[in-house]
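Revision sheet: structure tokens.
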Amino acid sequence: MIVEGGGHNVPGLMVIDTHCHIDGEEFSEDREAVIERAREAGVCRIGVPAIDLASSQRILQLCQQYTGYLVPMVGLHPEEVRADWQDQLTAIHGMLPRIAAGEGRGLIGEVGLDFYWSREFEQEQLLAFEQQVQWSAETRLPLMIHCRKAQNELVGILKKYAGDLPGGVFHCFTGNEQEARQLLEFPRFVLGIGGVLTFKKSHLPEVLPAAVPLSRIVLETDSPYMAPVPMRGSRNEPAFVRYVLQRLADAYGVTESEVACITNDNVARVFGVY
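Predicted:
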């Protein structure tokens, strides 16, 4: 079992949801209440990834309302790569100075590769991802990376810039030990672990302790998607990250407080926010 890593004491067991689409229409009627429930559950910070130009603009505005609580991200998601991808990236690139400035320092994301449904825009996805990886190397802004059925291609691109990348998160990791070790070869990156960990048929409770130290994990919900047990079937929300925390503590045989401290420190190290 790999447990290495340390952390300072976190009053009241505070936790961080590093990946929540709180800007989405699924939260349009009760967004403020969802954020309040997250605070009550001890969620002290929420990362908010974009998927395209429109969501990038929306997220910057929303995060201004919750400066220091919501962490903004801008980027083009692989499933949103279409014929206009270059125009979208040009506009998103202009937002990077706002992401890099002040207390609201954010990330580049959600970016990556996804060949699960279609390879229609495969070349465009590869070009769009590499361009955003270059942004990270140039600006020192970390990456929030989505990868589905494309790990070899994704790793190939990242290796070209590995020495210049500040780090980031491999979002929604659900792979095996070999895939985990391949991603952990990028030393400044961590794995984002969410509700899948709690699913009955998930192999993550065995894979993670065998291959991944807690010092390389951050917590996430991917709200409103993939609600954890016992909330499966309902809309996911940041407060539910506590169920992921509980299951991770069980899997590693440590206390929830230890997991909270270590994963919070991991966020501080990778995101550059405290």
